[in-house]
From TrEMBL:
Principal location listed in the UniProt entry: cytoplasm
Ubl conjugation keyword on record: no
UniProt-recorded name of the protein: COP9 signalosome complex subunit 8
Chain ranges of the PCI domain: 5-189
Sorted UniProt keywords: Cytoplasm, Nucleus, Signalosome
Location of this chain's protein in the cell: Cytoplasm; Nucleus
Pfam short name (any one): CSN8_PSD8_EIF3K
Top-level taxon of origin: Eukaryota
Length: 193
């Protein structure tokens, strides 16, 4: 299963998790597992506004007693600050519970693909060590990855010549923006009527 399929599968879980949170709210807070998964999926699909709102909704007792929710939020903070190259080590530094492990690894890979897309768009040539830093790989892994993409690498100068990545890499963030615009339009329409 490719990354886009996995993201689509997780995206389809959002409404179910939101319903579970809403149903649980009638009897008290939702379970830490629901909050953790929903927060992680919001980050995965790059729905940062909903991630922030969820973080504010999670009761402090749950935030303080569940280190994995705080760890998911720490990854989110890196996304908000656009410190994308810090995400890899942060994700790898935590022993994620089963309900979060795959989602967090998808966040890491989606971030890596976002970085590859940005490099392909922004650079005509770039030093290998900088690419390695952006991707969270060592130089050998970076060379292997860039060769699979058809990028050129000059061993003598240690410069990489990237190719523009296909637009499919950032479709999830565009879809999220489109979804937000639809919600905003519906809200304005509702308020006007």
């Amino acid at each position: 299963m490719n990354e886009m399929d996995m993201i689509s599968n997780y995206k389809s879980l959002v409404s179910s998790l939101e319903r579970q949170e809403l149903n649980a709210a009638m009897n008290g807070p939702a379970s830490p597992q629901i909050y953790g998964q929903l927060l992680a999926i919001y980050l995965l699909i790059h729905d940062l506004p909903n991630a922030k709102l969820l973080w504010k909704r999670i009761p402090n007792e749950i935030k303080q007693s569940n280190s994995e929710i705080q760890a998911v939020w720490n990854v989110g903070v890196k996304l908000f600050k656009r410190e994308l190259s810090d995400i890899y080590a942060l994700v790898d530094s935590v022993e994620w519970p089963l309900h979060l492990n795959n989602i967090m690894n998808c966040i890491k890979e989606a971030t890596r693909n976002r970085m590859l897309n940005l490099i392909g768009k922004a650079y005509s040539s770039i030093r290998l060590d900088v690419v390695s830093s952006f991707l969270g790989y060592d130089e050998t892994q970076t060379i292997e990855k860039i060769h699979t993409l058809g990028w050129q690498y000059d061993c003598e100068t240690k410069f990489v010549t990237p190719k523009k990545m296909p637009n499919t890499m950032d479709d999830s963030s565009n879809a999220t923006f489109d979804d937000l615009m639809i919600k905003l339009t519906e809200l304005v329409s509702f308020l006007e009527n």
